[in-house]
């Protein structure tokens, strides 16, 4: 703060006192034309400058290489202004024991050892790079500092070769760089705990596992830098392949959740279905927030006309987060779907490798179930394709509630 001078005016040569309040030890400079007056703030944070004349003076301070804001004051009357040094905080969450380095423009600003968290104070705006290293592994992220009134946060995690040991944020980061196949394998699993209601099914702390279907699957059509998953398995290794079923499984009751449509039609194809419009969006709120916040959309091509019309033009794009798989994606052949779907789809590597297509009830894991695929049946206007209880392809009327085994991307 700049305080009152000892006069309300004066001619050249008159000595006026300008009192500046600033951080202790700061060098304070007042400038008017070619005249410069300097001083150092005392331990109490006060610096008194003797000005040789009245008029308009520019005042600033420096401390430890940092320059305060600059204020222009008129030495004619009372006034109060502040000189402020820029300061912002970057809070980094990193594995305990990791060496965390803060850099700006390639130059190291500071290095600290993490105790689980590390805080850095920065004195200027700009883009900062934060790197953590430990036991030969390294990871980094960036923070764009634009305001001194904001605390910035960044989480850095090392990548584990065990998929389940990584957070969804770490998996997303690896996926962003197209490196998933360098760390993990098709079929690897990650725990997912389901909570909430979708349709008529309520899940409470239901523990299950998502597994990798493929890396950068069909990227030319569906989007690059994506790891494709499907739900679900009952254990991190071994266990049983399951799909979600409600109490109306294999029936057409009005409370049934996992139906392709509420009436017996496939008109509108996948894009117009109850499953896409209602069940899949509702399922987003059942998965944990750390997965939900790291989901990526996929562009999926499907027959979006239905009604027993099999034109190539019927196969169009939709944007998906959770989605049933298509016939070709599971089997690598087309038996009941629009054959043109195969032109813009690819069989998932998981099923191409010969893994079982049989799934069991999530709540009765010895009972095999039929699970829906999103492809409309091409031979009639009422059906969608499914995987039968023995793992073969079949079809059923759209209003039946069957099992739900959604795919998604991170």
Low-confidence stretches: 4-13
Give the fraction of residues assigned to helices: under 10%
Mean pLDDT: 92
Oligomer: single chain
| Number of domain modules | 3
Please count the beta strands (DSSP E, at least 2 residues each): 26
Detail the topology: elements first, then pairings.
Blueprint: E1 16-21, E2 27-32, E3 35-40, E4 46-51, E5 55-63, E6 66-67, E7 71-75, E8 88-93, E9 99-104, E10 107-113, E11 117-122, E12 126-134, E13 137-145, E14 151-155, H1 168-176, H2 180-183, E15 189-198, E16 201-215, H3 219-222, E17 227-233, E18 242-243, H4 274-283, H5 289-292, E19 298-303, E20 315-320, H6 327-331, H7 349-352, E21 359-361, E22 364-369, E23 371-376, E24 383-387, E25 393-397, E26 407-409
Parallel strand pairs: 8-14, 18-21
Antiparallel strand pairs: 1-4, 2-3, 2-5, 5-6, 5-7, 8-11, 9-10, 9-12, 12-13, 15-16, 16-17, 17-26, 19-20, 21-22, 23-24, 24-25
Description:
There is one protein chain. With 410 residues, the protein is mainly beta. It folds into three domains: 16-75, Immunoglobulin-like; 88-155, Sandwich (Immunoglobulin-like); 160-410, no CATH class. Helices cover 10% and strands 40% of the residues. It has seven helices and 26 strands. The protein has helices at 168-176, 180-183, 219-222, 274-283, 289-292, 327-331, 349-352; strands at residues 16-21, 27-32, 35-40, 46-51, 55-63, 66-67, 71-75, 88-93, 99-104, 107-113, 117-122, 126-134, 137-145, 151-155, 189-198, 201-215, 227-233, 242-243, 298-303, 315-320, 359-361, 364-369, 371-376, 383-387, 393-397, 407-409. The strands form eight sheets. Strands 2, 3, 5, 6 and 7 form a five-stranded antiparallel sheet that branches. A four-stranded antiparallel sheet has the order 10-9-12-13, with no helix packed on it. The longest helix is centred in the last third of the chain and has 10 residues, at 274-283. The model is unreliable at 4-13 (pLDDT under 50).
């Amino acid at each position: 703060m700049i305080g009152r001078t000892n006069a309300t005016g004066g001619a050249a040569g008159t000595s006026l006192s300008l009192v500046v309040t600033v951080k202790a030890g700061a060098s304070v400079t007042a400038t008017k034309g070619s005249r410069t007056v300097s001083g150092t703030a005392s331990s109490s944070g006060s610096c008194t400058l003797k000005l040789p004349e009245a008029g308009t003076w520019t005042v600033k301070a420096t401390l430890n290489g940092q320059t305060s804001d600059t204020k222009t004051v008129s030495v004619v009357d009372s006034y109060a202004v502040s000189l402020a040094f820029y300061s912002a905080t970057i809070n980094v969450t990193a594995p305990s024991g990791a060496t965390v380095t803060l850099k700006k423009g390639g130059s190291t600003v500071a290095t600290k050892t993490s105790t689980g968290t590390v805080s850095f104070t920065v004195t200027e705006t700009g883009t900062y790079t934060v790197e953590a290293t430990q036991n030969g592994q390294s990871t980094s992220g960036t923070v764009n500092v634009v305001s001194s009134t904001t605390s910035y946060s960044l989480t850095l995690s090392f990548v584990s070769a065990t998929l389940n040991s990584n957070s969804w944020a770490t998996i997303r980061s690896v996926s962003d760089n197209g490196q998933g196949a360098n760390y993990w394998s098709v079929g690897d699993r990650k725990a997912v705990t389901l909570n909430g209601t979708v349709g008529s099914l309520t899940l409470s702390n239901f523990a299950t596992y998502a597994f990798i279907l493929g890396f950068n699957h069909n990227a030319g059509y569906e989007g690059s830098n994506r790891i494709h998953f499907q739900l679900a398995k009952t254990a991190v290794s071994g266990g049983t392949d399951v799909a979600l079923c409600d109490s109306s499984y294999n029936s057409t009751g009005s409370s049934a959740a996992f139906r392709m449509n509420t009436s017996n039609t496939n008109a509108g194809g996948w894009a117009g279905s109850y499953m896409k419009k209602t069940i899949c969006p509702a399922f987003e709120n059942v998965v944990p927030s750390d997965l939900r916040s790291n989901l990526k959309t996929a562009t999926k091509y499907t027959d979006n006309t239905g009604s027993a019309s099999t034109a190539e033009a019927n196969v169009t794009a939709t944007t998906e987060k959770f989605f049933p798989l298509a016939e070709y994606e599971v089997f690598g052949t087309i038996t009941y779907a629009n054959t043109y779907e195969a032109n813009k789809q690819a069989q998932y590597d998981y099923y191409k490798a010969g893994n079982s297509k049989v799934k069991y009830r999530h709540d009765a894991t010895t009972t095999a179930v039929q699970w829906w695929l999103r492809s409309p049946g091409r031979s009639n206007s009422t059906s969608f394709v499914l995987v039968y209880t023995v793992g073969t392809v079949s079809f059923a009327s759209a209003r039946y509630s069957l099992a739900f085994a959604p795919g998604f991307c991170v």
